[in-house]
Fold this sequence. Notes:
Blueprint lengths: L9 H12 L30 H10 L2 H5 L18 H19 L3 H10 L8 H16 L5 H12 L6 H8 L9 E2 L7 H14 L1 H4 L7 H24 L16 H17 L5 E2 L2 H19 L2 H28 L5 H15 L11 H11 L2 H11 L13
Antiparallel strand pairs: 1-2
Amino acid sequence: MIDLPSDLEPALAARMERDRAAGWQSPYRCSDSACIRREDRPSDRASVWRPAFVRDIEKVIHTPAYSRLTGKTQVFSFRSNDDLSRRGLHVQLVSRVARDIGYALGLNTDLIEAIALSHDLGHTPFGHAGERCLHAVYHARTGRHFNHNVHSVRVLEQLSGRNMSLQVLDGALCHNGEYEQRVFELSGMTGFPEFDRVLEACYTQGHEAIKHLRPATLEGCVVRIADIIAYVGRDRQDAIEAGLVDGSEFADGLGGGYNAWILSRATVDIVSHSYGKPRIEMGEACFAELARAKRENYEKIYRAPAVEGECADAIEPAFRRMYERLLADLEAGDETSYIFRHHIRRVERALAFYGKTYDWQHDLDQTVVDYIASMTDGYFMELAERLFPDMTFPRRTYIR
Length: 400
């Protein structure tokens, strides 16, 4: 088991205390005055009591997509167990970890919270398994790619009509905890024209573009690292709680206690290596440990037959059939279809409040993607079983 410090070096702790007493903030933080929006709306301007990025936090938590995160799988589907994490809890955990690190580094914690709470708004039902299923059918039809981080931006702007800051949108786009790095240098992005070009490349090139993304702010870098820290230990706890793996099977010997262990040590390590610097970084040992733990999670949890096999067998045909059915309804103009009643009309009403419209007719495949990605696990299953009576899903009930 690798030995990582559980507390800051005394000299650094003393320096931080002196800096804090003097009102120090990182010179590399993203200030509220740097906030960039597409539209200069009077209602979005910062005030003394509602700074720029606080407004973004409020925009996020009042979207339907944020409410639905509580009904979306983090890892474990088809299990009635309220102790298992849902995506709504995950984004809060990421926010908490990232705010701790950002506060210690003198960064803008309001911006950090806004990025953290918004970063998974584009996630599908059934977690990454659902994401792969939706991508497969969408890509086969259009040649374009579906990725949840890219769709999070679409949810905020096109589907919710929120006038979000460039910094929050960039942080959501670049958050992917699936691509770990030891050192995060900033991208240097300065405006929406460049952001829009990068966003389009993610649609056309998929992971080839996404794996090269770098946040434009240190705050975005902190959220990206916090995403890994927040899930690597918690997913292990959930796997043990779900009875899919025994805690003694993990190489470090900590079982479910690994979550608390890595949260404290990774935070200390990142603060120690990043304080006062224009980048966010981890030490070699901490980076190696996170990579090791993530690999072990893939071996014992994410790719385990009881997780990946069960979910894929149940949802792959459901995603394909639902996609084809909803697309046919759009092409036929069948306004009795659920995609009109439960999606298009709702989005149109929401956008009308901001004087915007939903151009759903321009790209029918994208409209189907918008609808399916918006669904919670429970809604998806109920709709699939309504549309296709021969289809059933595995369910592990509370009382057995």
